[in-house]
Amino acid sequence: MIWTIITVLILIAAIALYMFGGKQDGKKVASDTIASKGISVIAIVLIAFSVCRLFTPAYLLHTNPAILQEMVQNMQAQQDKEKNKVVRDYVKKHVNDMIGDAPIAGNVDAKNTIFLWSDYSCPYCRRVHAELSRVLAERDDVRVVLKNFSIHGPLSDAPAKAVIAAKMQDNAKAAKLDELLMAKEYYTQADLKDQAKLPEKIQANVMKVAKEAGLDTKKLAEDMESDTVKAELQNVRELAQRFEISGTPYLIIGDKAFPGAIPYARIIEALK
Question: Domain 73-271's class?
Answer without folding.
Answer: alpha beta
